[in-house]
Design brief:
6 helices, 4 strands, 157 residues
Length: 157
């Protein structure tokens, strides 16, 4: 099935069937979900709540290790691949940092979408984040003595 994403591009999605599972990455990595799931018809699902999940892996730590190994080896969506590639291009993130650590860092990034001419942030505010451009382009301006000066345009990556 294809759906239209926030950039009006067609994106392939899959249909979950009996015994399919989902949500393990966001739960284990304590990150935001990257997918939406909706029922096409009547459905019943088994649910393992966060508290029960962490109680389970507290009792059986090998389950967490097994899940992390599986995620590292097989979970390769386009977003994760892009973030990992971009992190490796940031000098101070890539210097002597293992692929496993870059993998962990990749789960900490959230998606921020802007409309044309929206500000990501303005001069004079406290910096609380680092950004990587995944789509589009951003203009950088500096402010000096109440004057705004164009510096450069940043592109994807």
């Amino acid at each position: 099935m294809f759906v239209t994403n926030e950039y009006q591009a067609e994106k392939y999605t899959s249909t979950l069937k009996t015994a399919s599972y989902f949500g393990e990455v966001a739960l284990l990595k304590n990150c935001l979900r990257t997918a939406s799931v909706f029922s096409k018809n009547y459905s019943t699902s088994a649910e393992l709540k966060k508290d029960s999940f962490f109680s389970l892996i507290g009792r059986y730590p090998f389950i967490q290790k097994s899940m992390e190994d599986n995620i590292y080896d097989s979970y390769n969506d386009k977003w994760k691949k892009f973030i990992k590639r971009s992190i490796k291009n940031i000098d101070y993130f890539s210097y002597k940092i293992s692929d496993k650590i870059i993998e962990e860092i990749s789960y900490m990034f959230d998606t921020v979408s802007l409309k044309e001419e929206d500000f990501l942030f303005r001069a004079g505010i406290v910096c609380n984040e680092i950004y990587i451009i995944s789509n589009g382009e951003l203009d950088i301006y500096v402010h000096n003595n109440s004057k705004e000066t164009y510096v450069e345009t940043l592109y994807t990556g």
